Amino acid sequence: MPEAEVDLPLLAFPTTSKPPTVAPAPRWREWINAMEDRWANRCLPLLVANESGWALLNPVGFRAEWSGETDRDGITLEFDEEVPAPRPVESHFGYGVLTWSVPYLFRTPPGYNLLARGPANWPKDGVCALEGLVETDWSVATFTMNWMFTRPGASVRFEKDEPFCVVLPQKRGELERFTPEIRPITSAPEIHAEAERWARERDRVQVKKFLASYSKEFEEFRTAWEQDYFRGRTPDGRPAHEHETRRKLRPFADAPEDDAPT
After folding, report:
1. How confident is the model over 49-71, as pLDDT tens digits?
2. Are 20 and 57 spatial neighbours (Cβ–Cβ below 8 Å)?
3. Do the Cβ atoms of 28 and 163 come closer than 8 Å?
4. Which residues pair with 76 in a beta bridge?
5. Domain boundaries in the chain?
6. Superfamily of segment(s) 3-172
7. What CA–CA distance (Å, rounded) separates 205 from 55?
């Protein structure tokens, strides 16, 4: 069986009795669905990025505020309910950094790291997710997920079941194999011709969308958009040799009974 078709294990060993839920990252975003005609959902690169990885869900809703002080007491936390110690999120490092414990020991196949980051395209005013890359094919240490306040006085809220961390396996050494090079586009005549054709078609649609504001003759173009990339085809109608419109990540399955601890 070719390597690309071989299933790769991604194991998560809970280190507490009640770890947070971990699930495939969601495709949709509330800020997009709130837009007129949900037009940003036409951006396929954005949608596929949204669901690239597995999300750990915040176990309890809370509000956090940073005073600007650098010590650990600079962040105050107000939980929606009584939370026994140890709390799932706290001010651990100071300097306006909000820290979740990640009570799983992950194990990836040999040669694979695990990127831990915030959910893609999930902006939060006043706070920014920090990223980490962990060698989970050998390490026996858990890690934390951290968000940093961007300004003193900021107050942020995390809802229950809101993703606070997304984990994504990455093959170690793969980025280093790339040999970046800048070339004039005219050195690739076929790519150059297709790119110019795409630009002309996009400009044509944009002009008609503009005219739709002034003439009923172009009314049908009011919500028009160029769909070649979304449909996986070139401007002349040829299908892409490979095209992905969504991720279909498997959920974490429970361990077989034979593997359960006794």
Report:
1. 999 999 999 999 999 999 999 99
2. yes
3. no
4. 65
5. 3-172, 185-231
6. Deoxyuridine triphosphatase (dUTPase) (2.70.40.10)
7. 38
